[in-house]
Amino acid sequence: MRITDVLLGEHGVFYAQFDYLQHAVRSAGNVAEVQSLAGMLDAALASHAAMENSLLFSALEPHLGAQSGPLSVMRWEHDEIERIFNQLAQARSLKEAQQLVADVLQVARAHFVKEEQMLFPAAERTLGAATLADLGTRWAAQRGVIPEAAYGL
Ligand SMILES: [Fe+2]
Ligand SMILES: [Fe+2]
To answer: Which residues are placed with Cβ below 5 angstroms of ligand 2, an ion?
Structure first.
């Protein structure tokens, strides 16, 4: 199980959550309701970004560099997503809160596409099968799911 495959699987679940949130905030009645709806996505995206930062991006740094290039862009976008969620926590009007959700969804969708079209393929070309599988096993341990080795496959 390669790290790129499991991260791609996480993206698939997020797309369903993005679509749900996009529609749900339109009928929200107040700021607190928008903040509550977005809170679950905030927690899940922070966890996803932490997995990417600590596992995949760290492994890619010796190959792609850390200070400039695609990894610095991807890390900046992780931080940008968190900045928007922090702004949402301070939002004062329903309209502002709805706009911030629209903003975070736009940044997150564009970020995911870049990872899927550019970064994950670059990782698969660069890291090699053993490293990709080792990172996948570490992902399973950190997520608390049972890796395929436990089934004797
Ligand atoms: Fe990411
Ligand atoms: Fe991602």
So the answer is: 115
The ligand placed nearest to the CA atom of residue 117 is: 2
| pTM of the predicted model over 0.70 | yes
Residue 48 CA to ligand 2 center (angstroms) comes to 6
User: Around 22, how many Cα atoms within 13 Å sit in the side-chain half-sphere?
Assistant: 13
**Whether 52 contacts 39, CB under 8 Å:** no
N-terminal to C-terminal alpha carbon distance within the chain:
11
Q: What is the pLDDT along the chain (153 residues), one digit of tens a residue?
A: 999 999 999 999 999 999 999 999 999 999 999 999 999 999 999 999 999 999 999 999 999 987 888 999 999 999 999 999 999 999 999 999 999 999 999 999 999 999 999 999 999 999 999 999 999 999 999 999 976 666 665
How many Å lie between the centroid of ligand 1 and the Cα of residue 59?
14
- Amino acid letter for position 90: Q
| 39 CA distance to ligand 2 middle (Å) | 18
